[in-house]
């Protein structure tokens, strides 16, 4: 058994097969949780669970509550099924999360990815960042964090999970959240699209309700930048802002509004007491 686990909701067109190099050793296991019937995976070194129809978080909630095997692993990654990644990239992600003691983390999204939130896109200035938000697309958890946060899955009756990624950081005290830019994966499909307008309305209303009832929001702030040697770079808030902008220049070239969003989100770095240099906040609110 590996040290780490991928739990993936998959279907006939999912990209999970590219995650494994057949015959190459790895220290993580892959558990497929299909939302529809999929072809036999006899040539793939993985576990295939029974079909659980419905959205991503509906199936994961049921699996995590019914099967305790995931509690034997150090870290658990819950990616979308349209993620293009190599086995080496996934292994490096788990290694970095362990070394940096991240409780909630995600790989940065490759520059060519479809994305919803700029903070999830790879920042070229850093190997990793300590952040205040990790979205639900490709989140990874320490076992302890997932045990703590699992009850929140019940809040998403639609199964889409929107809003949970704003609640999780607050429940973790905005500590131990990381974006691992140096191990990027590619998100291959467009985001935020609903074929059913009524479903879209319910998903958005559910997200608004979660945020309102738990008094939380999308805190897309970067607290600190980390170099490849896994050391935090000692930067003032001004210096950190400059490096963030430099690292996301490719996004600014495509959409200049990103600059305003970054500046607005980094403002707490100048306002929170005790936040004179990069690091974790002392007063996250």
Listing every helix as H and every strand as E from the N terminus to the C terminus, the arrangement reads: EEEHEEHEEEHHEHEHHHH
Number of E strands: 10
C-alpha Rg, in Å?
Answer: 18 Å
Named CATH topology: Spore Coat Polysaccharide Biosynthesis Protein SpsA, Chain A
Q: What is the C-level CATH assignment?
A: Alpha Beta
Helix content: 25-40%
Query: How many domain units?
Result: 1
Give the CA-CA distance, first to last residue: 40 Å
What is the architecture at the second tier of CATH? Alpha-Beta Complex
Outline: globular
- Content-based structural category: alpha/beta
Low-confidence stretches: 273-285
Mean pLDDT: 93
What share of the residues does DSSP label as strand, in percent? 15-25%
Count of helices? 9
The largest β sheet comes out as: 10 strands, mixed
Keywords:
single chain; 285 residues; alpha/beta; Spore Coat Polysaccharide Biosynthesis Protein SpsA, Chain A; 10-stranded mixed beta sheet; globular
Structure description:
By secondary structure, the protein is of the alpha/beta class. The protein has a single domain, classed as Spore Coat Polysaccharide Biosynthesis Protein SpsA, Chain A, CATH 3.90.550. 31% of the residues lie in helices and 18% in strands. It has 9 helices and 10 strands. Strands 1, 2, 3, 4, 5, 6, 7, 8, 9 and 10 form a 10-stranded mixed β-sheet that branches. The relative contact order is 0.14. The C terminus is likely disordered. This is DUF707 domain-containing protein.
Task: Write a brief structural summary.
The chain is α/β, with parallel strands linked by helices and 285 residues long.
């Amino acid at each position: 058994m590996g040290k780490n686990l991928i739990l993936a909701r998959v279907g006939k067109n999912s990209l999970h097969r590219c995650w494994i190099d057949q015959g190459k050793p790895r220290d993580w296991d892959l558990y497929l949780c299909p939302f529809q019937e999929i072809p036999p995976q006899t040539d793939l070194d993985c576990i295939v669970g029974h079909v659980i129809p419905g959205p991503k978080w509906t199936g994961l909630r049921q699996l995590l509550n019914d099967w305790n095997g995931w509690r034997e692993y150090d870290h658990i990654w819950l990616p979308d099924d349209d993620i293009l990644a190599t086995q080496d990239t996934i292994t490096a992600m788990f290694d970095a999360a362990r070394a940096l003691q991240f409780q909630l983390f995600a790989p940065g999204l490759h520059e060519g990815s479809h994305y919803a939130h700029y903070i999830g896109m790879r920042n070229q200035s850093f190997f990793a960042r300590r952040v205040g938000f990790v979205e639900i697309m490709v989140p990874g958890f320490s076992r302890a964090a997932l045990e703590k946060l699992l009850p929140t899955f019940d809040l998403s009756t639609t199964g889409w999970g929107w809003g949970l990624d704003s609640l999780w950081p607050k429940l973790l005290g905005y500590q131990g959240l990381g974006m691992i830019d140096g191990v990027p994966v590619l998100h291959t499909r467009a985001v935020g699209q609903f074929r059913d307008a009524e479903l879209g309305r319910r998903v958005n209303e559910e997200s608004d309700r979660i945020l309102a009832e738990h008094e939380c929001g999308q805190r897309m702030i970067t607290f600190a930048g980390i170099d490849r040697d896994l050391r935090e770079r000692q930067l003032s808030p001004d210096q950190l802002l400059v490096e963030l902008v430099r690292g996301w220049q490719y996004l600014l070239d495509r959409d200049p509004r990103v600059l305003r969003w970054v500046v607005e989100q980094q403002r707490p770095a100048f306002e929170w007491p005790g936040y004179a240099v990069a690091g974790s906040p002392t007063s996250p609110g």
